[in-house]
Amino acid sequence: MNQSLRILIILLPIFILVFFTKILLVDEDLKLSSFEAKNFPAFELDDLNGRSVQSESLNGIKLLNVWASWCITCLVEHPFLTKLSKNNVEIIGLNYKDSKSKANSWLEKHGNPYLFSIYDPRGDLAFDLGVTGAPETYLLIDSKVVGHIQGEMNQQKWETIFMPLIQQATQKK
Questions:
Q1: In angstroms, rounded to a whole number, what is the distance separating the alpha carbons of residues 62 and 45?
Q2: Parallel, antiparallel, or unpaired: how do β-strands 144-150 and 136-141 relate?
Q3: Domain spans in the chain, listed from the N-terminal domain onward
Q4: Which fold has domain 35-172?
Q5: Which residues contact 18 (CB under 8 A, 6 or more apart)?
Q6: pLDDT tens readout for residues 134-160
């Protein structure tokens, strides 16, 4: 009995260490980005300039970035989105649970990397997409959601998650 207790005392911490190491080393971005392609939900909303936007305007390869003026992490990722936009990546904003005046002021102050920003003050479209908060970024190819990132978009996520999906889609055409 004494020998069994000693073995248990030695093996239990090792088991706990291995278990928590496995949990902590899971790449959350890859876990969250792996899902099956789905159609973008049909919608009809205005953009921040009051122009009508419909789901048909999402053809081609585009990023849809969920953002808000109150979102601190959105400010952190904004320079990277601006860089992508300057490199001819088409980005559409989805302004999430915000006011038009605050959103437009934010874009005037920090720059606007978006082709346009869909105004979703109640979060209805965001809910249909499965948004859990801002920021989130979706990769759209011909109105299908083929990639998704929760949290800050950055160079590493762009290269490891979205670029392979874009390359795969362009090779099929």
A1: 18
A2: antiparallel
A3: 1-26, 35-172
A4: Glutaredoxin (3.40.30)
A5: none
A6: 999 999 999 999 999 999 999 999 999
Which tokens belong to 172?
């099929």
The span from the CA of 106 to the CA of 100, in Å, is 10
DSSP per-residue string spanning the chain:
-HHHHHHHHHHHHHHHHHHHHHHHTS-HHHHHH----EEPPP-EEEBTTS-EEEGGGG-SEEEEEEE-TT-HHHHHHHHHHHHHHHTT--EEEEEES--HHHHHHHHHHH----S-EEEETT-HHHHHHT--SS-EEEEEETTEEEEEEES---HHHIIIIIHHHHHHHHHH-
Contact 116, 85 (CB under 8 A): no
How many residues in the chain?
173
Q: Give this prediction's pTM.
A: 0.80
Residue 125 burial (C-beta neighbours within 10 Å; 0-12, 13-18, 19+):
buried
**Banded model confidence at residue 172, pLDDT cuts 50, 70, 90:** confident
